[in-house]
Amino acid sequence: MSKFLATGAVMAFLFAAVPAHAETTTATLTVDKMSCVTCPLTVRKAMERVAGVIKVDVDYDSKTATVTFDDEQTSIDEIANASTEIGYPATPK
Ligand SMILES: [Cu+2]
Asked: Does the record carry Manganese as a key word (predicted)?
């Protein structure tokens, strides 16, 4: 019995040590009002501040942002809002 409990405790510890598998989603947004080459940096910083965002690539030429995020922590709409709030209206493609 005590051996069973000890094994259970070890198993629980091992499971707790392994991070829960997070689902990630990659989505593209259209970003308006970018008027110079430093605008994408501003947009990227704003999007990266959203909790759950893993990776942001903003392309000035195509006026798009490609965002990878944990969809249990945030959503594409929240990320779009972060950009819209700083003056660059973003729309999920
Ligand atoms: Cu600019």
From this structure: no
- Look at the block and give the residue holding tokens 């990878």: 68
pTM over 0.85: no
Tokens 């893993």, residue? 54
Break the chain into its structural domains and give their ranges.
Answer: 21-92
Residue type, 69: F
User: Ligand 1 centroid vs 38 CA: distance in angstroms?
Assistant: 5
Q: What is the pLDDT of residues 3-30, one digit of tens each?
A: 666 666 666 665 555 555 668 999 999 9
Cα(48) to centroid(ligand 1), Å = 18
- pLDDT in the model for residue 22: 67
H helices of 1-38, in order, are: 2-17
CATH level 2 (architecture), domain 21-92: 2-Layer Sandwich (3.30)
Q: pLDDT value at position 24? A: 96
